[in-house]
Amino acid sequence: MNESINEYLLVIQPHEDLIEKIMEIKKGFSETYQCPQALYLKPQITLIKFSQYELAERPFVNRLRNIALVNPSFRIILDDYGSLPSHTIYLKVQTTNQIMELIKELKHVQAYIKPNAQNKPHFITEPMVSIAHKLLPWQYEKGWLEYGNTHFNASFMVNELLLLKRKEGSKGYKVIEKFPLLNQVKKLEQASLF
Hints:
By secondary structure, this protein is of the alpha+beta class. It contains 5 helices and 9 strands. Strand 8 and strand 9 form a beta hairpin.
């Protein structure tokens, strides 16, 4: 049986106004530095990137939903630009504690999102909102010269996590599930007593 594997991203996205503002920055970068790939992904903070079989989707979706349900909403502050030398320019996330705590909890679903030894999930270690990645050396050097001296500041509330999916090898992710952060610790603890 040749079962299809999908690629998944669990992400945090800002509100629509901030998405539009960041997309304008990405568009400016794309035009100035001949970098069309800067426009491919919406502004987001990726928490996990993984591959999994279609048939295994329901169990891990349920587990991700349960993790989201017990976590509260939180504020993210974006402040100025950062870079991963030679290939990526991004917006820095200044408030990483809640994100890293969330990732620690998400690691409990690792067994459900790892179809085999070759496809290990990637949990982010440095939260960021990418402006452009996979840059050529000249794009990075000129772009970082400009953006490294440019200021940016914004914040937004995280009220949900989004699960994105695409067929392996295809372009473009689609949102398949939204997980609201509802802070239901007490209700779930009480329900488990009975």
